[in-house]
Amino acid sequence: MKCENELVREIVKVLDKKKAKDIQVLKIGELTTIADYFIIATGGSSTQVQALCDNVEEELLKQGIKHSSLEGYNTATWILLGYDDVLVHIFQEEPREFYKLEHLWQDAPVIDISDIITD
After folding, report:
1. Separation of alpha carbons 44 and 82, rounded Å
2. Entry pTM
């Protein structure tokens, strides 16, 4: 399933450009009311996790889009950035492996982002 949500596409582009690893998009809207999409990405350190978050915020603010929530920025092991129907999870490697959101939400369709990321 290709990604047709423009906000999701923009966030994935920003994360990819800033070298986030293992970016995944799950379409969770049919499973829950908390959001329509999860974007999950990994940074190599707390500094990179914060930089990824900062870049997403900056690029979306240029388009007049402000986040509705932000959690975990100070510790930067797992930052949750909310844009109403899109929740962005930016992890360090160890917490991502521990929490395994992809496994917890395994019933959610995985969105194909191969046309967005540059590998």
Report:
1. 21
2. 0.95
